[in-house]
Amino acid sequence: MSQPRTPSDVVAQRVQELRKRQGLTAKSLAERCRLMGAPGITASVIANVESGRRDQQGRRRRQITLEEWLILAQALHVAPIHLLVLVDDERARYELTPEAPQPTHGVDRETAGPVRAWIRGEAPLTFTDERIYRSEVPSEEWKSRERRQREGHEAYIQVWEALGAAGLTPKTPAAGEGEAEGEGESDG
């Protein structure tokens, strides 16, 4: 049985895909990293990151460090999450750990979609204590999230009204809008 893909495996795959897609050699990507203040990420480090250098059991001998993950994301012009979680299949299993969790713990493997939301701070993973998860969000971030939702709703209403004025939409109120006009009237 083959080893499950670790987060380091996913980062390695994504680094290689993005490097090749951008027409970069390992040497030119290493030069970008050097110019960004990470001279330790050399062409040979990038080759080792991408290959994973497996041991006899098929496990990576070299995991990717947090610092390497962040600087490689910056050097490849992507958000770090786009190196850590595959972007093609949100339903693909995501292996947070190299071995299956103990059945008595109640944790199951997650798919890429929920892992992506978890990393972004949008939603907890299965069996996470949501009170703790939500309590660690900075208050300014909550305000920003609420403000974005409110502004998005206001923009939706403006577009709806503009389309209605142009005769391009039915005269029904937008979701969440009050029913001041025509309240209690019936068509019959």
Task: Tell me what you see in this structure.
Mean pLDDT is 78; it is low at 178-188. Helix 2 packs across helix 3. This protein has a two-stranded antiparallel sheet with strand order 1-2. By secondary structure, the chain is mainly alpha-helical. It is built from 8 helices and 2 strands, in the order H-H-H-H-H-E-E-H-H-H. The chain has helices at residues 7-21, 26-35, 43-51, 66-75, 81-84, 112-120, 130-135, 139-165, and strands spanning 93-94, 110-111. 48% of the residues lie in helices and 2% in strands. The longest helix has 27 residues, at 139-165. The protein is extended and about 65 Å long.
Number of helices: 8
Could you spell the SSE succession in H and E letters?
Answer: HHHHHEEHHH
What is the number of strand segments?
2
The major β-sheet equals: 2 strands, antiparallel
Radius of gyration: 24 Å
Mean pLDDT: 78
Shape: extended
Strand order of the largest sheet: 1-2
Calculate the terminal CA-CA distance, rounded to whole Å.
68 Å
The parts where pLDDT drops under 50 for at least 5 residues are 178-188
Estimated helix fraction = 40-55%
What is the strand content? under 5%
Q: SS-based structural class?
A: mainly alpha
